[in-house]
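Fig. S4 source data, part A: sequence.
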Amino acid sequence: MRTIEFSGKFDCIICLAGILPKAKVFEKLQDIPIFAADGSVFNLEKIGVEAEKIIGDLDTFYANPDNIKFPKDKLVHIAEQETNDFEKTLQFAMEAGYRNCLILGIDGGEFEHSLNNWSIFIRYSSKLNLCICTENRYGFVVREDVMLRLKKDEIISLIPQPKATLTTQNLKWSLLKESLELGAREGARNLTTNDEITINLHSGSLTVFVEARLPLSPIYK
């Protein structure tokens, strides 16, 4: 069984066009390159945060007259339409050698965009160490048995993707070879009873939500 603890460092930040955190959050993440997916660069500009690269088909970027403010060497134009701007940005990060990616702005805006980005997040979590941060919560995908180092009395949610059978230890509402499934039974808002909890994943996968621990990233040991 592997251990997940929060002692790593994010090596890049990917910003999407949803709701971004306030500027003070970015102050905790200095010296980490920020990749803006297309028009999200304008949301970053509003809070005084600069992106290292602006990536995507750039349709939203060029539709905004403020695009002239940004130097051309920041632009990574990927014209193909088989992938959206989030996936294009993930591919860019992966090809550039980044592995521990913090995802900001995944929610907000048109709901179908959020759902589509969620699907991409799940898919690419098998290739990269991806972590969502929203509303002071981390979300990351688990596909194997793990022990998590958390805090006692911490809120934890176990959301199936789309179905999982699991056994847990040291949760207030324990599961014993029980199934969770989207549209049938979820596992939101449980509580830890110890600073170490275990998840034995008999089948399927989960997105685990816990308190954010910026600037630290979750890592497997």
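Fig. S4 source data, part B ends here. The mean pLDDT is 95.
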